[in-house]
Design brief:
The chain is of the alpha/beta class. Helix content is about 30%, strand content about 30%.
């Protein structure tokens, strides 16, 4: 069957569905093709269900470990079947909501696998071929990868896709990969009661994040009994009883790690294969990402790409922003990517979040920078919450804010203020002059800015070689 549309969108994840809605709202005839479930990785087995699991884990720990706050709970029972039912209920709520919104906004949703058979033609399995008069947009996302020999089997070896819904909590979870997904799901399992061993091939967890931030998270993991094997490579595995034994090579030679289940969290790769891109001459980078310009257009006129398939960072909010830009482009506006500040958050315990340059990146540029760190331990609200671990770190060039990083309670929420500050070109003075509600965690941002200006009142102002150095002198009551 031959059909027509103005815009064909391949993929109904955050990038694809939000683009399709925006274009349909503007009166364009849009068809959105999805081979699996509307919502993509984020809604179905990524951001949303993983945060639901993490939320349960945090509540479970709070219920069991609040005696120091004067709260004793006689019994806190964990029912993983109900936890997973809760996760799936949230997923269903959001995926059905997205599907309804696509329809209500006037976008057509087609179920099937799509392939480009021309710069403006898309063939959909068992449906037919569509001709797009304005654009074809690829928003197919990315998929988890696994080292050779550790391909998931859904039982003893699982990917994040299965590991995020733990019907039965493993007694001992072995995680391959010390990145975001490995640490988020590993931390959740640990707090729910599993033993945890993290195996990371590099010398640092969360590669690319400043070590002073990751050390706070690593220390909290070890306090709860986690085993962290850095500089260690998983060689192979074998079943043993109902569990698994992983043979590893580390700084001290080869050894074995015995556990109940292995979660493979070693990375993602773009879904750019089997789309007909090679025949059209669409340019890919060395990792298989579709190369695009500031307008999200590929080297083939009329073919666009956005979201994870177009390269890192693999962030849903980045995909939403891409969709906003491309909607303007396809509606005739002269828009292009001009984002100054792209935040990121890691939902460990405590959380890590940041935006702009890290301290390491800023120093590598050779700039004269000012780094100010304000500890959560000097913050009254953090103490009241029983969450005194962590700090806010502001990086400024002169007084202009170029980076802001947080490790601590609610870091994922606090980073929004720093994102806005960098986006509008704010200075430390701007942050310091802004009144922050007391007592709140957001005061840590204000206090860090004051410290960077050398006028903090809740930590000691000291300067060494032109750089502020914090030393807790009193508390913020």
């Amino acid at each position: 069957m031959e059909m027509n549309a103005e815009v064909m969108v391949i993929g109904a994840g955050p990038a694809g569905y939000s683009l399709a809605m925006r274009l349909a709202q503007r009166g364009l005839d849009v068809v959105c093709v999805e081979g699996e479930s509307v919502g993509g990785v984020c809604l179905n087995w990524g951001c949303i269900p993983s945060k639901a699991l993490i939320s349960v884990a945090n509540r479970y720990v709070s219920a069991r470990e609040s005696e120091d706050l004067g709260l004793s709970v006689t019994e806190a029972r964990l029912d993983m079947a109900r936890v997973v039912a809760h996760q799936r209920r949230i997923v269903r709520h959001h995926t059905e909501g997205v599907a309804n919104l696509l329809q209500s906004n006037g976008a057509r949703v087609v179920k099937g696998r799509a392939r480009l058979v021309g710069a403006s033609r898309v063939a959909v399995d068992r449906v037919g071929t569509f001709t797009a008069s304005r654009a074809v947009v690829i928003a197919t996302g990315a998929h988890p990868t696994a080292p050779r020999g550790f391909e998931p089997n859904g039982q003893t070896i699982v990917s994040a896709k299965d590991g995020v819904f733990p019907e039965h909590l493993p007694e001992h979870l072995i995680v391959l990969g010390g990145g975001v997904i490995g640490l988020e799901l590993g931390t959740a399992h640990l707090r729910l009661g599993s033993r945890l061993t993290l195996i990371e091939v590099s010398d640092q967890l969360l590669a690319g994040i400043d070590p002073d931030l990751t050390r706070v998270v690593e220390r909290k993991l070890q306090e709860r009994g986690a085993t962290i094997l850095r500089g260690t490579r998983a060689l192979d595995w074998q079943a043993r009883g109902a569990g698994v034994v992983v043979r590893v090579e580390g700084p001290d030679g080869n050894s074995e790690v015995e556990g109940s289940r292995v979660l493979v969290a070693t990375g993602f790769a773009p879904n750019s294969q089997n789309l007909g891109l090679e025949a059209l001459g669409v340019k890919l980078d060395a990792r298989g990402h579709i190369v695009t310009d500031g307008r999200c257009e590929t080297n083939v006129a009329g073919v666009f790409a956005l979201g994870d398939v177009a390269g890192p960072p693999y962030l849903a909010h980045r995909a939403f922003k891409d969709a906003e830009i491309l909607a303007d482009v396809l509606s005739g506006s002269r828009a292009e990517r001009d984002v100054r500040a792209m935040p990121a958050a890691i939902f460990t315990h405590p959380e890590i979040a940041g935006v702009g340059l890290s301290e390491t990146q800023a120093r590598a540029t050779g700039r004269q920078i000012n780094v100010a760190r304000f500890p959560f331990s000097a913050l009254g609200r953090a103490q009241a919450l029983g969450e005194p671990d962590g700090f806010v770190k502001l990086i400024a060039e002169g007084e202009r804010l170029v980076g802001g990083w947080i490790v601590g309670a609610e870091a994922s929420e606090l980073v929004a203020e720093l994102t806005l500050a960098i986006e509008v070109g704010a200075t430390l003075e701007d942050l310091a002059l802004t009144v922050h509600t007391h007592p709140t965690l957001s005061e840590a941002l204000h206090e860090a800015a004051e410290l960077g200006l050398g006028r903090a009142v809740h930590v000691l102002n000291r300067v060494r070689k032109g750089r502020p150095v914090t030393q807790v002198a009193s508390s913020n009551p």
